[in-house]
């Protein structure tokens, strides 16, 4: 069995040190991922000091990873093997470093180490996935990190990275990861970010997701859903998302939240806030209530339909064109 405590056994003579280009890429990825690689998180979680004793860290400077010279690599190895952690954790961290050697064209280094040190398969899978994340290879990372045999590692951090960056490669990656792992979303900001992300995929999907969250969060997340729908509609001129909003299967309580937010709350400042309430009431067949809410409308279009056309339809339903004319009082624009 390979002796992981012996530096030369893990990193044989002639192992290529990290080139300037590789160092720059790793440091750039660290900045992209919010100042912390998943390897940094592993070191911190296992209480392995990740900074050089000879110089304090500043931004990307001072970190032992990526090693900038042979001495840094040996120092990092020493800190890993001398840490008070189980050997399988030490093997996992060293395997990560040898994955970099694979990237440096020594394709056998990592696999040879894993076999000779008898690295557990589940730790091999986790490190593969985290290494891919740190190298911004998001689709490859999910192949490993959603493996059914794994207990999730850093699930909320991973979901955050996929929402912020992974969706640019494939918009369905955050959804796939969430459905496979079910991270708890204890961070309110992450919870809101995921709802917003879902809303961009499908408003109805975001709506049903909110139903799975703690009851005390339902109202604020529902209002976030309304915000996103109206902002999205205004930014890209799409009416589909507003149509989805109007036709959501709301409960009586949610109906009250919907109208309160758009008629009296913060949502009333949106250009189409009152229009949306009127359209919702019309969709539910509440014609008289729609006329009441539409008293303040001033002739603008809603979803490319002039309110005059809506007014005619309501008049036909109520059988009182004169009353509707006097209440809506709108002119074609």
UniProtKB/TrEMBL annotation:
The ELYS-like domain is annotated at: 37-265
Pfam families annotated for this entry?
Answer: ELYS
Q: Chief localization class?
A: nucleus
Give the superkingdom in one word.
Eukaryota
Q: Which InterPro entries match?
A: ELYS/MEL-28_NucAsmblyFactor, ELYS_dom
Keyword Nucleus belongs to the record: yes
The record's subcellular locations are:
Nucleus
What UniProt keywords apply to this chain's record, in alphabetical order? Nucleus
Protein name (record) = Nuclear pore complex assembly-domain-containing protein
């Amino acid at each position: 069995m390979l002796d992981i405590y012996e530096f030369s056994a893990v990193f044989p003579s002639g192992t290529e040190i990290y080139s300037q280009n590789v160092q720059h890429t790793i440091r750039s990825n660290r900045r992209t991922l919010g100042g912390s690689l998943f390897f940094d998180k592993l070191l911190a979680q296992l209480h392995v000091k990740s900074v050089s004793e000879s110089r304090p860290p500043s931004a990307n400077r001072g970190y032992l990873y990526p090693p900038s010279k042979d001495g840094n690599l040996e120092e990092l190895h020493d800190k890993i093997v001398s840490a008070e952690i189980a050997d399988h954790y030490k093997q996992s961290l060293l395997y990560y470093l040898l994955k970099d050697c694979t990237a440096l064209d020594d394709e056998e280094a990592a696999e040879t180490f894993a076999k000779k040190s008898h690295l557990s398969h589940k730790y091999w899978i986790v490190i593969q996935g985290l290494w891919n994340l740190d190298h911004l290879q998001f689709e490859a990372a999910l192949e490993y990190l959603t493996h059914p045999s794994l207990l999730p590692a850093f699930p909320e951090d991973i979901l955050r990275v996929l929402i912020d960056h992974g969706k640019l490669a494939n918009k369905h990656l955050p959804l796939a990861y969430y459905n496979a792992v079910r991270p708890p979303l204890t961070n309110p900001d992450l919870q809101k970010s995921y709802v917003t992300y879902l809303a961009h995929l499908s408003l109805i999907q975001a709506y049903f997701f909110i139903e799975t969250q703690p009851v005390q969060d339902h109202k604020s997340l529902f209002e976030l859903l309304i915000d996103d729908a109206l902002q999205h509609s205004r930014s890209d001129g799409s009416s589909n998302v507003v149509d989805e909003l109007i036709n959501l299967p709301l409960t009586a309580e949610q109906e009250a939240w919907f109208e309160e937010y758009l008629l009296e709350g913060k949502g009333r400042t949106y250009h189409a806030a009152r229009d949306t309430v009127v359209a919702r009431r019309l969709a539910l067949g509440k014609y008289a209530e729609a006329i009441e809410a539409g008293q303040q409308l001033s002739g603008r279009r809603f979803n490319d339909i002039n309110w005059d056309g809506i007014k005619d339809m309501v008049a036909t339903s109520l059988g009182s064109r004169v009353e509707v004319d006097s209440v809506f009082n709108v002119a074609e624009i």
